[in-house]
Amino acid sequence: MCRVLFISQDNYSQDEIDRAVSRAFNHFGISFNKGEKVLLKVNLVAGHKISRRVSTDPSIVRAAAKIILEHGAAPFIADSPGIDNFKNAAEKAGFMQIARELNIECKELTDPVDLPVNVGADFHKIQVSRYVLEADKIINLAKLKTHGQMYLTMGVKNLFGCVPGRLKAGWHYNVGLNREKFASLLLDIYNGVKPAFTILDGVIGMDGDGPTSGDPYNFGIIGACVDALTMDLWLCKMLGAKLEDYPLYLAAKKRNMSQCSLNPDDVEGDITPDKIFNDVNLPKTRTMRLLPRLPFLERLMTSRPVHIPELCIGCGRCAAVCAAGALRHENKKLYFDYSKCIRCYCCHEMCPVKAIKFKESGLLKLVNKFGGN
Length: 373
What we know:
Blueprint: E1 4-8, H1 14-28, E2 37-41, H2 58-70, E3 74-79, H3 86-93, H4 95-102, E4 105-108, E5 112-114, E6 127-129, H5 130-134, E7 137-147, E8 151-153, H6 155-158, H7 167-175, H8 179-193, E9 197-207, E10 215-217, E11 221-225, H9 228-238, H10 247-254, E12 267-269, H11 295-298, E13 304-307, H12 317-321, E14 327-330, E15 333-336, H13 346-350, E16 356-359, H14 362-369
Helix pairs in contact: 1-2, 8-10
């Protein structure tokens, strides 16, 4: 049985996107009942222009919403940015325009409630927006990007946005430097939320210093699946990355999840699983291999965020989002306390002008040179 469909798509022409998204829904037999509330979970990290390729492209959101409306169901667009005002961010991303065109809601995921605990979960007290649990179906509209902390962000990672606003920062602080533990949290959220379907926008994604400060990359692909973990693991390989560097794979492998076996028969469509995207600039923030997982090595083998003063506009978002209280902002200058820094890179993620970058430690440079990334 097909678990992942890869569609070749090299542009955002609305007519072509409509056909591609319709093909995805039909391939898996995804349907909707009249009156069902359907949450379209977009990727809206912060308020960026569409050309930055930070968020799910509005053409894909529009196509999915139209199909749901044709079934007589009631779609609504939603997410929870880390720090930005939701309406402003959604306007910049083009989601508010879709809501006005189609006369549907576009709202922030607020009002945290407890997520039901699944058997085998590592975390037993996770809160997500009540709108997530009240929806009859969730359609996960993710974006294909690199990610400084988690290496890649795709289908599974996109559901972290179901955690309302500043509660995300609390999870970063509680989990700390352990990326595999954070990946386990993502699996618990994904398994608890149970999206009915995932569509991944990889037409133009992002490589480099993602998920907000990287560079647009023309992957020319739309992914569709019922099982987002399988899709994410296959794409990790197709991007030329090593699974052992992907925290999500390590967390899933620790749980002995069947998706880790990567059966090529699970993949159908225009792009075969042996496809390798060339010259993808992958993050070098940490190596997951070669060195033992010892606490005193964590900071030595992990890149640290550094300030680029000439780019800074003094907005203070970086300090405001830091759950660890590891940085201070004064007169367009940042002062980092690296003894407190948990390397979540939220400061980098929330900077609107790329004024924070990663600096590899000497140990990490050595490991990456002789067998790391």
